[in-house]
Design brief:
Chain lengths: ~110, ~120
Amino acid sequence: DQQVKQNSPSLSVQEGRISILNCDYTNSMFDYFLWYKKYPAEGPTFLISISSIKDKNEDGRFTVFLNKSAKHLSLHIVPSQPGDSAVYFCAARASGTYKYIFGTGTRLKVLA
Amino acid sequence: GAVVSQHPSWVICKSGTSVKIECRSLDFQATTMFWYRQFPKQSLMLMATSNEGSKATYEQGVEKDKFLINHASLTLSTLTVTSAHPEDSSFYICSARDHRGQGTYNEQFFGPGTRLTVL
């Protein structure tokens, strides 16, 4: 049972435009959400996170939006840069635990 | 920032042998470390939670006798794949929880991963 889903396995965006990556979850006990960027044969690197008490968090070019009623979050990257090309994973953490549940990932390709 | 290393970065072994993978937190103490595995084009799947000085907690479906975890110090956890078989070939990634990160968001820091290939 995949509790965290990223339904788009891949996304291509032109340089300078906005990239929107989506993530859905099923467990209402999740209270913390994170986005990680990952290159092949490397560990994930943290990008941005959001607590369930917020609906938006912004850090530079990266903004994460959370819609609790829809159990949906999204990562916006603007403007997109070729260096953003990687696989992006969303992850969720249930209240009272330290375990992260990862989504299936979306491969972003930013075209120059 | 917090740095986590893994050794080796890649390993090739024969079927039936055992392989040990080390995970170290270099500049912080980690009371808890996590072991994940990732198959090609799939998600990171949590295998077990490693707690310093106590037994690891394994996720459902993960054989604890197959994947031995030892967390003997606040900076080192090891994963031993015993009697490895080709189906154990995967990318193994550890993460470490900074014990100072109480209630802060970026609590886990990931290592670079270890590629295991079993022939």
